[in-house]
Every structure is written in structure tokens, then in C-alpha cells.
Design goal:
single chain, 194 residues, alpha+beta, four-stranded antiparallel beta sheet, 4 strands, elongated
């Protein structure tokens, strides 16, 4: 392979692939960084941000050096899209934190409440007035890893029940420890009270 052939392969295949994979990594890190910022992790979020921006700078430098190379633009955009997808999958698999379920059903919720309590969940329920009739509203706070189980219980009870799920940043409950301990700890000099 002569120099011209190598230059062609590098410019139109190897370089775009490098940009593609660097964008995947940097956008995945961005997605995870946003999650850690929302969870209040003061150590991991800036660390991920450092590597995210470093990788982005390298990728954008290569784009600017090859402004006439359309393959680099396509690789940049495709890496961005793929990085978002992979970041969301990783975030979903991590299932960090706690969430609050708000379940609203017109059907008598006694059996649903019993099922949740027997499953070890703490609930708060109230009877309220809906547009057409009275409704039961049930609140419960669970680890994100429990979401599928809760949704299965709701669907078994009443597939038409309305429920919403919200992220919760902090739970103050002495009986149960819903706040998962992060494997990543901030250095002692960054913690409150120091």
C-alpha cells in the first residue's frame, strides 16, 4: 500500500471511525454526568465532565482540521446519536436512586394496597374525588430497581390504573434505607461539614 492509498483510507474511513467512537464515548459520559449532577454526586459528575470535554475537544479539533471531509461530519453526528442511545441504556441499567409512584385508580384499591404492604412496601393512600367518581390515590417511594415489580403489581391489579413516576433526590426515613450508597465517594475535603 503506497502513501496515497493509506492517506485515502485514513481520511475517509479511519479518521471518521475515530471521530464516531470518540463521540460515542463523550456523549455517553455526558448523559451519565447529567444523571450524577441530578443525584447530587459532587465527585463523579465533575470527573466525568473533565473526560467528556477532553474527548470532545480532540474530536472537534479533527473535524476542524478536515472541514472538507463530509465523512467526518456524518461520523460526528452518528456518534452523537449513538452516544445518546448508549448513555440512556447504561443509565437505565444502573437504575440509581429512588422514585415516587403516584397511583390513581377508580377501582377499590384495597387488594392493591394489601399486595404492596405484603410485598414490604410502605405506602400512603387516600380516597379523593375524581371527575366521575371517587378514586384511590396511593403514594410509595421505592428504589429504581423495584420499578418493574411495582408496575407488574399495578397492571395485575388494574391495567387501566393511572400511575406516574418521579425521581426523588432524597428520602428521610429512619425505618428503611432507600438512599442507595454510591460506590463512588467524594473526597473528604469535598463533603459537607468539613
Amino acid at each position: 500500500m503506497d502513501v496515497t492509498d493509506f492517506s485515502f483510507w485514513f481520511t475517509y474511513f479511519i479518521l471518521p471511525l475515530m471521530i464516531f467512537f470518540s463521540r460515542i464515548v463523550d456523549v455517553t459520559l455526558d448523559t451519565l454526568r447529567i444523571v450524577f449532577v441530578a443525584k447530587g454526586n459532587k465527585f463523579l459528575a465533575p470527573l466525568l465532565g473533565f473526560f467528556e470535554v477532553l474527548i470532545w475537544l480532540i474530536a472537534i479539533t479533527k473535524i476542524m482540521q478536515n472541514l472538507d471531509n463530509v465523512a467526518c461530519y456524518i461520523a460526528y453526528a452518528a456518534g452523537f446519536a449513538t452516544g445518546n442511545y448508549i448513555g440512556l441504556i447504561i443509565e437505565e441499567k444502573l437504575a440509581m436512586g429512588v422514585q415516587m409512584f403516584r397511583i390513581i385508580t377508580q377501582k377499590d384499591a384495597t387488594s392493591l394496597i394489601e399486595k404492596l404492604i405484603n410485598g414490604g412496601y410502605k405506602i400512603t393512600s387516600i380516597v379523593a374525588d375524581g371527575n366521575k367518581s371517587s378514586v384511590h390515590i396511593i403514594y410509595l417511594v421505592v428504589k429504581r430497581t423495584e420499578n418493574k415489580n411495582i408496575i407488574d403489581i399495578i397492571n395485575l391489579f388494574n391495567p387501566n390504573a393511572f400511575y406516574s413516576i418521579e425521581d426523588v433526590r432524597h428520602v428521610n426515613d429512619n425505618d428503611i434505607n432507600l438512599n442507595q450508597k454510591s460506590k463512588f465517594k467524594s473526597p473528604s475535603w469535598m463533603r459537607k461539614g468539613r
